[in-house]
Amino acid sequence: MTANVDIRLAPRQRLARGLKYSTIGPVDVTRGVAGISLNTVSAAAAGLRKRYESGKLRRQLAAAAEAVAALPEVIQEAAAAPEPKRRRRPLVIAGVAAAVIAGGAVAFSIVRRSMRPEPSPLPPSVEVTPKP
């Protein structure tokens, strides 16, 4: 007899298991990525809270307020200056994202094919059509 025990996986373990198994993979990959994202956000929030309490963030916010106060002058100076060339950064980011997705698809198909058993070249040891 086995007991049904709900084992709580860490997001990193869930992501690894999701990439390993193809049947429950998409669910585990999604939950793993979401868990890792939530952990990252909570860690960042804790870091910001510590920085604010220590006073660093207060000084940075004061400096940002001064920069915002000087923003109209900067905008007027920028409007008078000639326009710089357009950057192609969004195209580069989109290309890298497409390459990563394509690489993941290739890796997924390779892993999935490697998990399939190869058919045996030997004939079956048991007769396929049973005789009455």
Characterise the protein shown here.
- This protein has 132 residues and is mainly α.
- The protein has a domain at 9-81.
- Helix content is 69%, strand content 0%.
- It is built from five helices and no strands.
- It has helices at residues 11-20, 25-54, 56-69, 71-80, 89-115.
- The model has no long low-confidence stretch (mean pLDDT 78).
- This is Cell wall synthesis protein CwsA.
- Keywords: Cell cycle, Cell division, Cell membrane, Cell shape, Membrane, Transmembrane, Transmembrane helix.
- The chain crosses the membrane at residues 91-111.
- It is a single-pass membrane protein.
- Required for regulated cell division, cell wall synthesis and the maintenance of cell shape.
Segments where pLDDT lies below 50 for 5+ residues? none
Number of helical runs?
5
Which range best describes the helical content: under 10%, 10-25%, 25-40%, 40-55%, 55-70% or over 70%? 55-70%
> Given the helix and strand composition, which structural class is it?
mainly alpha
Main β-sheet: number of strands, strand sense, barrel status?
none
The radius of gyration over CA amounts to: 28 Å
Strand content: under 5%
Ends distance: 38 Å
* Mean pLDDT over all positions: 78
Overall geometry: elongated
SSE string: HHHHH
Total number of strands: 0
Keywords: Cell cycle, Cell division, Cell membrane, Cell shape, Membrane, Transmembrane, Transmembrane helix
Organism: [Mycobacterium] fortunisiensis
InterPro entries: CwsA
Protein name: Cell wall synthesis protein CwsA
